[in-house]
Amino acid sequence: MSWDSLPMIGVAALLCWVFYAFAREKFSPDVVAGIAVAILLVTTLLTPADILGVLSNSAPITIACMFVLSAALERTGCVETLGRWLARMGGGSPLRTLFSLMLTGMVLSTFINNTPVVAILTPVAVTLAAQVGSKASKLLIPLSYATILGGTMTMIGTSTNILVDGVARQHGVAPFGMFDIFLPGLIMAVIGLVFIMLIGHRLLPDRESLSKQLRPDQSRPFMTELLVPHDSAVINQSIANANLNGESGIQVLKIFRGDEELSTPVNTTVLAAGDRLVLHANMRDFMELRENGLLTFNRNQAANFETISTRDVTLAEAIVGRSSRYSHRPMRDLNLTARYGIHVLAVHRQNENIQENLDDFQLQFGDVMLVEGSPAQIRKFADNGDLISLNTVQERAYRRNKAPIAIAAVLLVMLLAALNIMPIEGLAMIAAVTVVATGCLDTEDAYKAIDWRILALIFGMLSISIAMNKVGLIESLVDQVVALSPLLGPLFMLSFVYLLTSVLTEVISNNAVAVLLTPIAIGVAQQLGADPRPFVVAVMFAASASFATPIGYQTNTFVYSAGGYRFSDFMRIGIPLNLIMWITATLVIPWVWPLFPA
After folding, report:
1. Domain that holds residue 197
2. How far apart (Å, rounded) are the C-alpha atoms in residues 520 and 571?
3. Residue 338 in domain
4. Tell me: the pLDDT tens digits for 43-79?
5. Are residues 481 and 547 in the same domain?
6. Per-residue 3-state assignment (H helix, E strand, C coil) for 317-376
7. Is residue 203 domain-shared with residue 222, that is, in the same domain?
8. Is residue 70 domain-resident?
């Protein structure tokens, strides 16, 4: 080993650590990429000029603008309108509902980013499942897969396509047109849809929602507000001694004492005359306890408390959105009971129901919260925190009069880009500014729509890719791969590139894989004397084709907890689908783009 090879070994070791950190998930992917870039700067393997040069890549800016356009379509009610059409299309048949849901998701994700499509259609799917006597677990994985497949049909269908195209341009590959990938993408999408409709849906679990798992047999709960009269026998008694600590089926949630509010009373809290108590009770248990005399405040229960008001409360499930301000903060800091009057009963994450020590629990994207409160309180809680209610399709004040502008903006981007009037990054910027300037979307909502974590990850991985190129690591990896070509041939190399990309996408971020493998795929093609475009398309498709795990793609992560899935559920249906897509891509891509064009 020579001293000259040390930088390459160092970058290779750092890259291995990046993959390990992605898989371990101790840090978020953007933080991992940032740490790697900092190490490269400290070791002078990258210079500040190299980092600033990454900003010249058009892909991240285009992706940010497409996030804004997707949010404009959502805010103007375009996606919600399609959701209502979908509800009518279901027609009471589970299979027909599955087909219409997948078709809608597939069509929408052809034009806009698929993550907001899944976010909008998830509560629709939960509602439809109840209407046709099915379970949401039968619909949500297919919805995610359909949007992934739909995103591969146009250059703006998913951020991965835009990113791969941007990296390929920097390596001398001609830009892809808007619909250059439509035909192979359509073929793969149709085959995937047929597989799920004929076989895949039979492999899906039939599982209850979180609220039914935790409270399967209880009747509807309610809250009641009681006043402690001045002659009550419970005056100067603790909550525990007054049998209001939950063991009797009735629990004090809040105490109002004059102008003071005790939002988290404990068992030792002493009751006083004039206290107003907000109690949680199950109607059945409360009535039984009163009839049996088990509430032993004194012999005359009516003299102890005076009812002020009673209101129904509901259980609701809400999923933490991508930009939720509740995420990555301990729940005690959120002060949800005092702020919104709701109570978090449990959180579901990755096949685990968390009901204890919730104060220290930090929410993440895709977590499902089981909350309790009045419909108005839950609606306010969800709206303020960017949560998606899974129990009902949320009503919003959509700006429907602006919908034609949002639709026209997206369609013009696609049309003008297809006609090569202007590069897509310029069109996307003009369209994003237009939808904000015309009121389709507020400025604040536009900034919230952009997933800054994805952009930070992309910039970080582009910087790592530059370091790999500077030290010769990409060239070395290409040589190692090409050494197999005399034995196996270029078609096998194309198939290998797809398979490697697909496998890595299942365990680490798809955008990170796209950035790292696109230069390698181009190098392999050039060494073989082949056209690099089919190899780039192989990376493009495979980096999106994450079906076997819930962590490789954001839409899978989103439906993971919402459907009450287990990790194995994705493997059971996803591995066969991955294999089918691999074989299909190996046959279709060279048919559309010959490896050695005449």
Report:
1. 59-210+400-452
2. 28
3. yes
4. 888 888 888 887 777 778 888 888 888 888 878 877 7
5. yes
6. EEEECCCCCCCCCEHHHHCHHHHHCCEEEEEEECCEEECCCHHHCECCCCCEEEEEECHH
7. no
8. yes
